[in-house]
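seq:
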Amino acid sequence: MRQDVNVLIFLDVRKTLKGMKLYISDNKVILTEGFDGVVPPKYFEKIKS
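struct:
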């Protein structure tokens, strides 16, 4: 995780996998391009600041 992150967004992975592609980076971070660069809030499980 980046050191300058102020907010964490947790995705509902089951729901997300039904609609978009997820990738795991070399440093074990889950990444997505979303839909045209956007992840709609309906895929959020929780947000932590």
